Amino acid sequence: MIIVLKHDITPKEKEETRSFLERHGYKVREIVGEQDTIFGAVGQVMMDSREVELLPGVDRVIPISKPYKLASRELKLDDTVVSVGPVRVGGGRIAVIAGPCAVESLEQMREAARAVYDAGAVMLRGGAFKPRTSPYSFQGLGEEGLKILKTVGQEFGMPVATEIVGTEYAEMMNEYVDVFQIGARNMQNFELLKKVGSLGKPVILKRGLAATIEEWLMAAEYLMAHGTDDVILCERGIRTFETYTRNTLDLSAIPVVKKLSHLPVIVDPSHGTGIRGKVHPMALAAVAAGADGLMVEVHPHPDRALSDGPQSLYPEQFERLMRDIEAFTPVLEKEMERIPYNIATQSDEIKDAPGSEPKGTRVRKMVAFQGMRGAYSETAVHRFFGEHYEAVACDSFAEVFKQVLQGKVAYGTAPIENSLAGTVHEVLDLLLQHPDIRVVGEQKIRIIHNLIAAKSSTLESIKKVYSHPQGLAQCSRFFEEHPGIEKVPFYDTAGAVAYIAERGDPSLAAIAGREAAQVYEMEVLKEGIENNPRNYTRFYVISRTETESIHKPNRGVLVFSTQDKPGALFDVLQVLAEHQLNMKKLESRPIQGKPWNYMFLLAVELPERPEVLDRAMKEIKGKAEDLRLLGLYYAHGE
Ligand code: PEP
Ligand code: MN
Question: Does residue 185 sit in helix, strand or coil?
Fold first, then answer.
């Protein structure tokens, strides 16, 4: 703290002030200026600054260090990523928690969960204990509600969040809950904070109705000091003089808190506004302001809701909101958080391949990708499967397919399409050539090219930049702006980083993804130097078996070749039209070894009743040759 001394302070008072501070563990340094004399006091001791202010000869005290430590950015520079089962909150992701205000019945929760899950929410909310302003309002179903919440959460593979209103419920609730919510009215219920903190589970801490940001962070500090590292802060509106909204949603708190703290911050636009029609704009604004996620109230029948109906979205409104956020995320260089593909809920058996190795759990959690460590493909693996799967680097796409076929890994990933460069034909050809390989999922990655160099480099010191020719081409504007820098084509983006890392020359740089910089302990000198920010790559996830996804598939991919006669392709497409199957993609590809003969790859949107596709395929079989289903999977955000 800085202690400004009074002009007329006596030498005795000055000495007493100094020894008072030293007795309390501070190191004191005196600075004499032209106008004022101050003491700079540094120390670990938490002390009420008013005690110093009351000393004779002291004019005023300016505290410098924050009263919260564990929650502060000073202690931890990196963003905290809170893991709740398979879901991650924080660190460049937007995680959406949704569900009704209160758990009302099994049917209501199932309907709500279906709607929010289909729209892309990753966690289910629902209050079983409701802290209502009026004692006559619905108070929640209690433990019965928790049972319903847990059952439905499990049915959809979604972790559940629910509010705890008293310490006496902690042990009982612990069995049902994935994330505890501390409500706005309980933000400064310190006994509750201590108890919930000591359980060590993730906690959503809502901001109190009249809490300053510092008080909010101090409440987080309570949770952390008592045993949990996983605190998600939730801005839900504060009490102001304004009456047109239920609360005033303080979105400026987001950038403020993000600077002060490493903890993720989510926003609840439902309680923040109290009016259904205001949720959509404020949710988008929250995401724009840097929120790591949202908590939104959605009810299958808001007009019949037992609590907070007027602010609950209809399922269609929520779906529209999710689509708008999805469209918005690239601008913010973020990704929507998704429930990763969960192998544990699927059949443990991977079909035996000839000569395959024994398939222990390790193989089941191994995923092959093409490229070196830190490649964009490795990012795709981690995005899809989460951090607990092992990404196995392969030299070529063919090697990825081989490893999957031989059962050395359970899965592989391969890029199928880039939004700027088009189809990756080599991967498509491999899919056509391998009837035992299935597409079981897909992952889209935004390609952000960074200029990466050694820690000692500066932009001025760089003379040569290495990258894959496509990486160089996609950053042509950067090279136009820096004509003195030479472009050097390299076989691989991450490989280019490995190469310059080994050379250790500060005049060399590479263009690659951020993960490559991390893997090879290099620095990102300039972020996002690609010309076109709409640079995405779609990866297919492949497997030997047709592994069931926990997501209901919404996409089918087929390949076929047509007979050599007029209208042959038209006949096939007509079958799709008759069955009302929406075609998402059609691509032709020369058949290897059969010059001027073509295969077609066709992606269709799966209807509600998947039998429709079976029937359509039976009909197509009569009109096309070599019809094959490449896979059924869940495609996000389309
Ligand atoms: C809730 O999430 O349903 C709730 C009661 O929120 P808050 O504590 O923010 O009012
Ligand atoms: Mn509510």
Answer: helix
